[in-house]
Predict the 3D structure of the following.
Amino acid sequence: MSTLKIGHAARQYPEVRNIIGCVEGASYHLCRDYYSLLRRFGPLLGVDPSSDRLSDLQFQFRDFGLNRVDCLHLFNGVNYSRTPWITTYETLVPRFRFALKNHLSDSETIRSSPATRQAVEQLASDRCIGLIALSDSARQLQSRFLGHFPEFKDDIERKTTVLHPPQQPLVDVGAELTFPYESDGVITFMLVGHEFFRKGGSEVIGALSEARRRSGVDMRLTIISRLKPDSYATATNEEDVVRIGAMLEDNKEWIEYYQSLPYSEVLGKMRSCDVGLLPSYAETYGYSVLEFQACGRPVITTDIRAFPEINSDDRGWLIPVDKKPIGGEAYLRDPERRAALSQAIRKGLTDIFQDILENPEQIKRKGHQALSKIQSFHDPRRFGERLRSIYESGV
């Protein structure tokens, strides 16, 4: 059998996580195209860098067949060339700003966009051999979006599958898991990821500060995240950045803070904590949950989007919040609902911290369950086999 040649449009984290190197024996090729050139030179030609037009180019691909590959595998992208292709998506495709802003609108509004309709036609074409949803949450959101295009919906959904990202165990699965709290009784929590405020970072600091004060027990927190305003989920500003920065400075004795660290050091910190944290307002997936679990560390998350698919109260903790029935997105579009979401996250964290203090032995039990789930549900070999079968169906 000849070597599969798989093309990809970028080498960013999503491609590394879900595409590049995932099929044993396949060769991978970075493919440049017409739209990538437009993205590079558009601003030089006077195109506004913040415009919808320039933003949408990153989700479009057209190479006129010049890249000699067997199959293109895009992330959130749509291919307009004749090469067989698949796309992995995290919310919905096409991921154009117009579609994201208006996907809950009436069908007439959505169908009024020629670019959106053309992209959906490409998804329905025979050249598109598969769509991979990162989660069932994403599949639900895509299905609702396709309701605006009933003439294409069935054809697209027939070739759609849910395939969660692969994850190797990051500890020796044959060795006994050990936790810092077992040796000194001090429980260490850890939050990692971009967008500190959207990840629930402010609520984490508030709830853990309160738990330390009420219990009188020493607990530690490690944070690896850049402090910057978040206009999307939490409506935070520079004043919030200054406030949190001052709190970090005033609590250095128990909060260890880094803006960023090399990936190997991040994993080392994960292995050296007891419990991971990702109580997010909004999250398309949450790769750090898998990485914590692959280190045998249970994680506290909200129950939005994909979190209930990769986390549970058996192998971690889920904080229930008010959310939409399709896709599980939290309500956060107005100040009142954002405030209610913040309160729910903080209360959930406070209750869980208290429960952990009273029953610390559950950390180890849940850590073992988390690692076991990684081995059974995110096995890279099985992931690669499923991906290969999709590629070969169109080659």
Observations:
- Residues 180-377 form a domain with the Rossmann fold fold (CATH 3.40.50.2000).
- The chain has two domains: 5-166+379-394, 180-377.
- The mean pLDDT is 95.
